[in-house]
Model the fold of this input.
Amino acid sequence: MSRGSAQPRTLYPTTRSVVNVVKMKTLRDSASSAAARRTTPSAPCALVVDDDRHIASLIEDALSAEGFQVTLAFDGMSALRRAREHDPDIVILDIGLPGLDGLEVCRAIRKDSSAAILFLTARTQEVDRVIGLELGADDYVSKPFSPREIVARVRAIMRRLKTPAPRAAQRRTIGDVSVDAERREVLVDGRAVRLKPREFDLLWLFARNEGRVFTRDQLIEAVWGYDWEGDRRTVDVHVRRIRRALNDGVGGRPGYLQTVHGLGYKMSGPK
Done:
């Protein structure tokens, strides 16, 4: 080959160039994956708490099949840790936990979270069920139960949390109590009052039907659903909690939520 002739160019990339191409592709793929994660709605998170690992596993499988991200805890303390770490949308919580029981766990979760709570109870734990509802639980299921029943209850609770209010007449004001269905906001004399999801649904039903008397069965069908099989006294528990939150009839304030003896309840403004 003559001195002036050009050297032939290689057709093969160098090792360094191959590495650089791979790095660039990896970075692009990572960026695309991150973007996809940011634009993909996250699955709802469920925390299942039961010291019976077999039961917890059955519930986990059933909820995972419905698209939930499920995390497990087998005692009260680990349940509180998981709740802080994962900020679940719903907690399926056994009342009869060893050590820190389900009622104490519910009380602690309610201080920092508005997650829905579904209690798992034994049929003999009627008093605990009422206390649990007082503490802010949304519903309960009695043992023994099937995974399908758990899924049905969870679906019903999640529907209530996500169902948008009707666009027409989304605000009601009765006396100094204002209920905004679109914002799910309650104001008492201009002060914000925090209610649990089902408490709000119950108050909104009363507010948009001012003066109408509802029986307990009508309230259960409208707020809990026609297929609900729990104790009818849960209505009394929720009404009591709403009254307490509104300071209803306390310190000279008018009592808006009124008991109609022998029938049920109604909401009326001051006369």
Q: What stands out?
A: DSSP finds nine helices and twelve strands in the chain.
